Amino acid sequence: MKIGTRGSKLALAQTQTIADALIAAGADVEIVTIKTPGDLSMKPIAEIGIGVFTSALRDALAGGEIDVAVHSYKDLPTAPDERLAMAGVPVREDPRDVLIARDGLTLGELPQGAKVGTGSPRRAAQLEALGFGLDIVPIRGNVDTRIRKVRDGELDAVVLARAGLARLGRLDEITETIDPIQMLPCPAQGALAVECRAGDVDVEHLLQSTVDDTATRAVIAAERAMLRTLEAGCEAPVGALADVVEDLNDDGAVVLRLSLRGCAAADTGEILRASATGDLTEGEQLGRAVAAELLELGAGVLSGPEA
Length: 307
Ligand SMILES: NCc1[nH]cc(CCC(=O)O)c1CC(=O)O
Description:
- By secondary structure, the protein is of the alpha/beta class.
- It folds into 3 domains: 2-90 and 191-212, 3-Layer(aba) Sandwich (D-Maltodextrin-Binding Protein, domain 2), CATH 3.40.190.10; 97-177, D-Maltodextrin-Binding Protein, domain 2, CATH 3.40.190; 219-302, Porphobilinogen deaminase, C-terminal domain (Double Stranded RNA Binding Domain), CATH 3.30.160.
- It has 10 helices and 13 strands.
- It has helices at residues 9-24, 37-40, 45-48, 55-62, 121-129, 143-151, 162-167, 201-211, 214-229, 283-297, and strands at residues 2-5, 30-33, 68-72, 84-88, 97-101, 115-117, 135-137, 157-161, 176-177, 192-197, 238-248, 254-265, 271-279.
- The strands form 3 sheets. It has a 5-stranded mixed β-sheet with strand order 2-1-3-10-4, with helices on both faces. Strands 7-6-8-5-9 form a 5-stranded mixed β-sheet, sandwiched between helices.
- Helix 9 runs parallel beside helix 10.
- The chain is globular and about 55 Å long.
- It starts with a strand and ends in a 10-residue tail after the last helix.
- The site of ligand PBG has 9 residues, from strand 8 and helix 7.
- Ligand PBG is lined by residues 72, 74-75, 160-161, 163-164, 189-190.
């Protein structure tokens, strides 16, 4: 079974976890790396286009060059690919964003005018809205490159996904895990998407029984439905975080519910927020409802070009 992945250190680390699970289940696997336009160009993501990290992998999968594709879920476009099946959504890593700053500093301790690197409009919009007077510097590149800009003194700090650092064994370099009250992560951040060809039922069943997690599917469904309703891509200034929470029903019994918080930047720079809870099985409806509230608050103005 050929498992396709991007060739970055992070992509290889996350693909290895899937390969290990399949090997443990008795499968014979080989990892195949595929170059994507997102790896070959250092232009801002918005200029390269949608699916820059995922389209080449999906084409290789549909064309039979590989049998399984492992993606960072948040890099996938919101439109489904009818050629493929989403066969596995493994337990996700901590979805929060983190700060890596010089001298062990936290966001609140950075001086006014401190240079904070991020290429993400979502992170930039939420950092600006904190009102700390930070100087947001657009950057791209892999995790190593971004952290090096802090070590070299070019930047005071960078904001990254905690999940990427966890997978690379670099959690000890974090100077603050940012509270979702200050910054909501990208929808599906920290989650993986494992696809096979539609109709390849043996592979689909194997993935479902080895790497799939029902609770993760529920939270991802809510976050992604919100994003899809806002017609925004992974580079849009949209944050979302769903959690499975305990609640009491009318009889006083404990039930599991889905809680979703979302935010979107208005063109004024103001961050609009909405949240709701719903049934565990109704992530889609919950996501659409929170998106509808954000649109009503004025988020419609940002559903322009996505990338
Ligand atoms: N935007 C690039 C990207 N795509 C996936 C991750 C790793 C985190 C994840 O798996 O969600 C990253 C790096 C980052 O945002 O710091």
